[in-house]
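Re: that backbone. C-alpha cells:
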C-alpha cells in the first residue's frame, strides 16, 4: 500500500521554462539590458546556456554579457537578481495545487526531493504556495546528497517513516529521478506536459495533473492509503 508520494521540483511541480521566460522578460526590461528587438534571442540564448538548470548562472551571465556586449551591468549583479527575484515568477503546472490538495486529503504523505542550491530552490518552491501540504522538503545542497544517489531517496523515506516500496516518485529526469527512485525500490511516474514524450523505464507516464488518480490506478495502486504513521 502506498503511503507517500514524492515530487521533483523543476519541470515537475515548477514550470521552470515558463517561469524563466517571465523572469527574463522582467530582468531585461528592469535593467535595460538590450534593445527590445533582441529580447527573444537573449532569452533563447539563456535557455541554451542554462542547459535545463545544469549550468549555474554566473557562467550563463558572463557569456551573455560578452555575446550581447552589455556594458551597463556586471554579471554578479544579474546573478544576485536571479537569486533574489526568480522566485517571484515561480509558476506551477496547471492543476497542480488541486491535485496536491486532493492527495493530501486522501491521506497520502507528500514530499519533495530536488537537486539544486539552497535556499534558492526552497524559495522557488515556497512561492508556489504548496508547502503546507508537504511533510518534508529535501534539496541536494542542503543535505549533501544529489539524485540519483540512493541515499537521498532513502533519507526522504526515513523522514516520512515509510519504506521505499511504499512510495511513488514523480519526476521529469529519467536518470536522476526515474532510475534513481527505481534503484531504491520506489514506484515511478515520469512527468512531461507534452503527451508525445514518454519514458520507457518509468512505471507510468503523466502529462496532465488532472489525470493523477488515473495514473496511480495504472500502477495498480489502491488510491485509499492505509493508516500512515505520523
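Recovered sequence:
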Amino acid at each position: 500500500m502506498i503511503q507517500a508520494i514524492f515530487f521533483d521540483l523543476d519541470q515537475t511541480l515548477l514550470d521552470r521554462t515558463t517561469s524563466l521566460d517571465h523572469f527574463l522578460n522582467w530582468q531585461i526590461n528592469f535593467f535595460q539590458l538590450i534593445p527590445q528587438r533582441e529580447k527573444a534571442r537573449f532569452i533563447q540564448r539563456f535557455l541554451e546556456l542554462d542547459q535545463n538548470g545544469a549550468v549555474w548562472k554566473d557562467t550563463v551571465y558572463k557569456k551573455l554579457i560578452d555575446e550581447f556586449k552589455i556594458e551597463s551591468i556586471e554579471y554578479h549583479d544579474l546573478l544576485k537578481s536571479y537569486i533574489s527575484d526568480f522566485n517571484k515568477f515561480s509558476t506551477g503546472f496547471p492543476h497542480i495545487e488541486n491535485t496536491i490538495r486532493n492527495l493530501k486529503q486522501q491521506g497520502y504523505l507528500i514530499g519533495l526531493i530536488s537537486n539544486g542550491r539552497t535556499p534558492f530552490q526552497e524559495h522557488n518552491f515556497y512561492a508556489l504556495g504548496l508547502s503546507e501540504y508537504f511533510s518534508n522538503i529535501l534539496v541536494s545542497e542542503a543535505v549533501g546528497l544529489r539524485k540519483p544517489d540512493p541515499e537521498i531517496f532513502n533519507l526522504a523515506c526515513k523522514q516520512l517513516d515509510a519504506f521505499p516500496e511504499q512510495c511513488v516518485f514523480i519526476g521529469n529526469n529519467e536518470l536522476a529521478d526515474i532510475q534513481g527512485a527505481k534503484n531504491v525500490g520506489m514506484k515511478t511516474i515520469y512527468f512531461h506536459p507534452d503527451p508525445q514524450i514518454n519514458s520507457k523505464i518509468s512505471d507510468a507516464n503523466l502529462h496532465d495533473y488532472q489525470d493523477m488518480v488515473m495514473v496511480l490506478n495504472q500502477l495498480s495502486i489502491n488510491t485509499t492509503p492505509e493508516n500512515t504513521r505520523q
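Residues 222-230 have pLDDT under 50 and may be disordered. The longest strand covers residues 109-114.
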